[in-house]
Amino acid sequence: MTATPVFEADALRAFALTCFETAGLESDQAAAVADVLVWADLRGHGSHGVMRMPTYLGWIASGLINKDARPEVTLRKGALLRVNGNMAIGAAAMTQATDLAIEQARDTAVAWTLVQDHTHAGAIGFYADRIMKAGMAAVVMSALRPMMAYHGTRHAAASTNPLAMGIPGGILLDMSTSASSRGKVGVAKMAGKPIAPGIAIDKDGRPTTDPNMAETLLPMAGAKGAGLSLMIECLTSLALGNPLISSALNDAKLMKNFKQNSLVVAVDVSVLGGDIAGQAGQLATTLKAQERAEGFDEIRLPGERGAREEAKRLKDGVPVPAKTWDLIAEAAGKLGVALPVQRA
Known about the structure:
Elements: E1 6-7, H1 9-22, H2 27-42, H3 53-62, E2 72-77, E3 80-84, H4 90-108, E4 110-118, H5 125-133, E5 137-143, E6 148-149, E7 156-158, E8 163-167, E9 171-175, H6 182-191, E10 200-201, E11 207-208, E12 216-217, H7 223-238, H8 245-250, E13 260-267, H9 276-288, H10 304-316, E14 318-319, H11 322-335
Helix pairs in contact: 1-2, 2-4, 3-11, 4-5
């Protein structure tokens, strides 16, 4: 069995940065992508980590990602901002929008920042975490093309539209509206393992546990997940006058559209005069002290598992599955970028 490569987080980040710079991104945009990818790997979300590098680099080479694009603010009215991503790499557009939201919220207490026409944003929790670290509450959501069944449909009619919410004090919810992410199906395919029931259907709309047969993801909690996905499309794409779902369902050519629309909300809760971080700690302590159900050895809050994994991987290194690393190494080789040194 091939050993799993393990890397220091800083070495992996520097490697990703060099790859994206070599592919033609400006240094600040390349750094934004590297930060988002390694953050996901540190927190145990390999489906949104450096596994994405070959795909992103391929999109840059093909022009799906506009490597020369600079996101621009096209509207600023009170606490509301609109940013045109101009098909820039998603992490760069979203990091810029997040920083704009933080800046605006320091002035108006709340910022509502809409971002249109960017490519894959990566782990949406990264941006909520960035807002939390600025001492603010966060809500971040993103809309994509149809890739998930709507409750009751046989084929893709909604999207996996991710949602992240966080508050100072470390409670961070980072989720998809689908029963699982497509990236995790890809991880199962690479590992040669089945997926859990209730995650996907095949091309004929039948349930499957074979990741190679998985054609369409299913919404979490049935109608509830489908409804939440639909509302994210409304609050982002429809608000921007840039619909993704209805456009694609009425024009099959748009089913392969790779653009996303997003919403970043930052709230400076300190103006309310309370101690939300302290109250979050008290809430965590109280919940953890409750009697546990059978089969549970601990009660955990949103984001707690990821935070623990991050602390562990900062100490012990970041593992990357061998098959995934082979693909990354191949992509780096085409760019002439040297591979980082693995941990002993």
